[in-house]
Design a protein that fits this description.
Radius of gyration of chain B: 28 Å
Distance between the termini of chain B: 23 Å
Low-confidence stretches of chain B: 1-16, 366-374
Distance between the termini of chain A: 38 Å
Strand order of the largest sheet of chain A: 6-7-8-3-9-10
Helix content of chain B: over 70%
Mean pLDDT of chain A: 86
Radius of gyration of chain A: 25 Å
Number of strands of chain A: 20
Number of helices of chain A: 9
Number of strands of chain B: 0
Strand content of chain A: 35-45%
Shape of chain A: elongated
Oligomer: heterodimer
Order of helices and strands of chain B: HHHHHHHHHHHHHHHHH
Order of helices and strands of chain A: EEEHEEEHHHEHEHEEHHEEEEEEEEHEE
Largest sheet of chain A: 6 strands, mixed
Strand content of chain B: under 5%
Helix content of chain A: 25-40%
Largest interface: A-B, 29 and 25 residues
Structural class of chain A: alpha+beta
Structural class of chain B: mainly alpha
Low-confidence stretches of chain A: none
Shape of chain B: flat
Number of helices of chain B: 17
Mean pLDDT of chain B: 82
Amino acid sequence: MSIRIENVTKTFGKFTAVDKVNLDVPDGTLLALLGPSGSGKTTLLRIIAGLDVADSGSVIREGEDITRQSARDRKIGFVFQHYALFRHMTVEENIGYGLRVRKRPKALIKERVDELLKLIRLEALGKRYPAQLSGGQRQRVALARALAAEPKVLLLDEPFGALDAKVRQELRVWLRKLHQEIHVTSVFVTHDQEEAFEVADRVVVMNQGRVEQYGTPAEVFERPANPFVMDFLGNVNVFHGRVEQGKALVAGAALAVADQHPDAPSAAVYVRPHEVVIQHEQSGNASLPAKVLHVNPAGSRVKVELRATESEQLINAELTSERFAELGLKSGDEVFVSASRVRVFAGNYVI
Amino acid sequence: MSADAVIIRLPARGPGPQVPASFVNPRTDPAWVRWGLTGFAVLVVGVLVGIPVVNIFYEALKEGVRVYWDNLVADPDTRHSIFLTATVVPIALVANIVFGIAAAWAIARFKFPGRTLLTALIDLPFSVSPVVAGLMFVLIFGLQGYLGPFLREDGYSVMPYATSLVGVFVLVVLYFVFRPANPAARRGVWRGPTWLVVPAASVVLFALSVVVQKRLGVWPQGESLKIIFATPGLVLATAFVTFPFVARELIPIMEAVGAEEELAAINLGANGWQMFWHITAPNIKWGLVYGIILCNARAIGEFGAVYVVSGHIAGQTDTMPLRIEKLFQEYNLPGCFAVASVLTLLAILTLVAKARLERKIPSAVHEATGEGGS
């Protein structure tokens, strides 16, 4: 079922948590609400579930306005960040709770619980209590409990936030697969851009209660709508310069701008570390001289820190290990830096 | 474990100076300090607590079980005092349980103006002397008090109003508890607009109830309603003095457990009633029992406030502690100790129950903070 959010605003005292947000979640998508903490993403999720009440605006599910419906009638599953499992109930009782309060026959509840235990691969642990489970297991029980009531929409608040790196990675893959199997419209909140891009079909970037950008992971990553999104999606080199005839002039170098951009006397020029090109020779006026400060070869990509000779600006670069071997870089080397891809946002945006 | 280690290490230090002083565990005090302090504590507890408690039972049972039993049940005034305590305490207890849960819920779950004030006021009975509390009720309901003359003239005339008010209030609460949350599912009395139905129905029912009670003459007319020097006063004073126990016990537990499990239940389709009985009640269960036990112990033993409002009419307003005092004044020591032994026994039972529960409650709060695990 699709969900539409129209003009939703929510304030806590003087703080505006959600500011006139409009959002469309098409049927069957897995959407990520991505943003820094305090950007209003959890509040928005709770408003959709009916656990918080919006000051204004409406929530529409498949054409039906459910703004005034109570949380228990919305049939929207919610997985809490800290799971909120019922501590005095076993795993089976937890999962079956949604059916129990709706007065379903016992046999049917049992059948559904067994089916879900199989789905979350915890068949053997049905009689345990939440305190006897690991974090990843609790997370899966919380998900099964939300799914048992056959929700039309599933909401997950920081689903992997409290887990360690390895379990996180496993659960991401598992959630992605699960979504492909059951296809329930899902929205999850995260502050980890990697997680959002890996799991979701659609990504919504939020900041200070507003939606900054909406799109597929590729769209958002390739075409950030504004400097905030650009900056939030991973570290980035920012140069200050101007735009003339489709070229960004930065510290004496003229870099080709990816998208058509009108001339601007003052612009912020963004280059991602993996788009920085390092060469030993100068190539016309499209590169600037720099000095290698530090090389970090750990990891799948080699990280190089440089300083531009002229402006003394620090530049972060990432190279493949092949390219790194080819260049034979070490700290102290004098090199020339250009960019394979350049993005420009005009105006005095301050980060 | 550490005690063993200390005992093994000490002789090495005693006879010869070959072990440097820095080898001695810096966290361990010398033997004379440890034994001295322990001995002092045991002595004080023994003299102040142990011997008197044993003495109560010794004095009570000195002349045999038969005499002890006669002392308890043969005297009609003593018998009545036990009966009166057994009446007053449960009523005060039920009132405080209902109030305690409501107050703890309000304070732990909602933010509202005056929340801090309410929290402070809950503690008031702890800080006020019980005698002052008793006097307060005498000043309101006593003969010379504000409501005294009216209550003496025709006190029962308020009863139709009071009972109707309570009845209407209970109905309103039930109305909201059982109202289907989904507007589409509301039938019958739940169909109309709430802002109109509830006030209108309340007024009509209240008026109807008052008129019916007056017509039928349920309550005596022109008679005085005794509150002070009567059982209602005893209940009021006892309830006032013991009023913080349940709420104070529940507030920290409800705050530690948090509202998320309750929200999860609502999200899964539970109504308010189901949420309370399935989620909230099991989570606060042990804290509630603990609060009830403390409240009960205090209510049974309450002396000061009850002393002021009772007027000590033997066979009418003497509760057990008041009866003990009176027997003592009358030099009836065997009788006095017999009743005292019953109170002491209840106190010991309370202590045992409290010690057992204390082991359960920290674990409940502990799990609540998400650190639970086995």
